[in-house]
């Protein structure tokens, strides 16, 4: 989608600090980090949020979690939180599926 910020980032039209890339997904550091380590992992295909995941596009979500497990090991992150906000009330501001990976500080529960 040409008007989607994260589609434009995966297309290289908007610069980002890349963590990892493969055919299916792209990982990059969040521009406004909420923890000492904070990156996002997104599918290259446009999916608006978790609420648009279905049997057809679900394999990329499994792939993204495998990538998160691999990257966090490589980065030496033993404890971290994976978050996906769905909808405005939950704090979603970019409507392209993304998983936040946050690490490096104490986390509170429940999240605010
Ligand atoms: P959410 O609010 O859950 O939809 O998450 C969107 C995230 O994208 C926020 O944490 C923003 O800081 C981050 N963000 C917005 N624009 C950029 C950008 N150009 N590069 C990296 N991260 C961004
Ligand atoms: Zn998009």
Write up what this structure looks like.
21% of the residues lie in helices and 22% in strands. By secondary structure, the protein is α+β, with helices and mostly antiparallel strands. It has a 5-stranded antiparallel beta sheet, with helices on one face. β1 and β2 form a beta hairpin. It is globular. Zinc ion (ZN) binds next to α1.
Physical arrangement of strands within the biggest beta sheet? 1-2-3-5-4
Q: State the low-pLDDT regions, or none.
A: none
Major sheet description: 5 strands, antiparallel
Q: What is the helix/strand order?
A: HEEEHEE
Q: What's the Cα radius of gyration?
A: 14 Å
Q: How far apart lie the N and C ends? A: 31 Å
Q: Which hetero ligands occur in this complex?
A: adenosine monophosphate, zinc ion
Overall geometry comes to globular
Residue share in β-strands = 15-25%
**Number of helical regions:** 2
Which structural class do you get from the secondary structure elements? alpha+beta
Task: Please tell me the overall pLDDT.
Answer: 97
Secondary structure elements and their pairing?
Blueprint: H1 5-10, E1 18-21, E2 25-29, E3 37-43, H2 58-74, E4 80-83, E5 99-103
Antiparallel strand pairs: 1-2, 2-3, 3-5, 4-5
Give a short synopsis of this structure.
The chain is an alpha+beta fold and 112 residues long.
Brief descriptors of the model:
binds zinc ion; 112 residues; single chain
